[in-house]
Amino acid sequence: MGYKKFDEQDLAYLKELIRDEERVLAGNEINEEYSHDELSGTSSYPDVVIKVKSAGEISEIMKYAGKHRIPVTPRGAGTGLVGASVAMEHGIMVDTTLMNHILELDEDNLTITVEPGVLLMELAAYVEEHDLFYPPDPGEKSATIGGNISTNAGGMRAVKYGVTRDYVMGLEVVLPDGKITWFGGKVVKNSSGYDLKDLMIGSEGTLGFITKAILKLLPLPKKIISLLVPFPSLQKAIDTVPEIIRSKALPTAVEFMQREVIEDAEEYLGKSFPDKQSDAYLLLKFDGNTTEEVERLYDRVARLCLEQGALDVLISDTEEREESIWKARGAFLEAIKGSTTYMDEVDMVVPRSHVNEMVTYLHSIQKEVEIRIKSFGHAGDGNLHAYVLRDGLSDEVWEQRMHEAMEKIYQKARKLGGQVSGEHGIGFAKKPYLKESLPEASLRLMNGIKKVFDPENILNPHKISEE
Hints:
The protein contains 15 helices and 18 strands. The protein is of the alpha+beta class. The longest helix is centred in the C-terminal third of the chain and has 21 residues, at 395-415. It is globular and about 70 Å long. Its cofactor is FAD.
């Protein structure tokens, strides 16, 4: 049985339900941005966009959609990169960006409760004002917390602090049948049956709507210092990463970058990078409560880098230098996008011990496939971002070469014990590669879980492993 075609009667019901015409968009009122996410390779318009303000509104929408079998697509800021928030079956798109309130800061339990539309940068700034710290640090600071949870976003601080999953303690969720429930809570330990909260994290809006989140906080580190380490070659830089991890002087972040990507960022930002002496760099960040503690950590790693052949170790101990380095790193995605006509992205993750082999492989296949590939990534946690660039290729040649490059990259990642996505998710765009990567039993279980939560398959259909 297919989905009901959305009609004027459905629109009239939703307008009556919301009673605010500015929050119900249909036809020409729907902005083109609602048809795609950040990469825009997957495109489909919803029939209606509803800017919700409460779990209650979402509950009523889901009840109506379930009764009439109308597909519903959750949407945050739309900064995803795999088409997870694109309405593949049209229908109703539920925009949660107006649910953007910080509800409670509980300093006794070191938690904060927020609505899903709160932006990552707003959350980080708010808790820092209270000398607290929310460690997950994805590159897109204008993403919503709901989106971060839905993709289990990682970011640069994962080396030391882990990913979004490690900081989600409880979730209020609207299920596909409209019921509002809670998974988890403020307890630190919980061995009470299946962990339904963890099922929601990374489920990309396919199992339920996240309407509140209780997040774990840490005391704010008092001192942060970065090292920018130029190497004579990318191989030398990447080969040093396992040595840094083995040293146990654990950095907050270990990033690798190359001159060609830095130049894109310089052009995009209109600002010079603070160092010009090399084609390959490691960027390391250290944090702690005292200058002495941080210096003790980075001194050991600085010596190790020099022993491994680093050309220099530049200490970023001023706010100005720190900002110039990390602002360039934060601009890499947009800068690469601006350097070509179109691009597609690979967000594979491999064991940390194989980062060097994977990066070397990415560079080697450019000539083989005859396509440009630029890469950077979280070398300390094995999550590498490779961007396949279209440039001036025709539609036919682009499709053929892009898919060939993707197949080769994912195949190599699998051989190294890696996975399709480290932090961006699967959505619609990466489904074929997930199917090649996972055992049939795993895919069957995933689809079975989807059917238990959403037997009518109305919530975000055609995402992850579901056809």
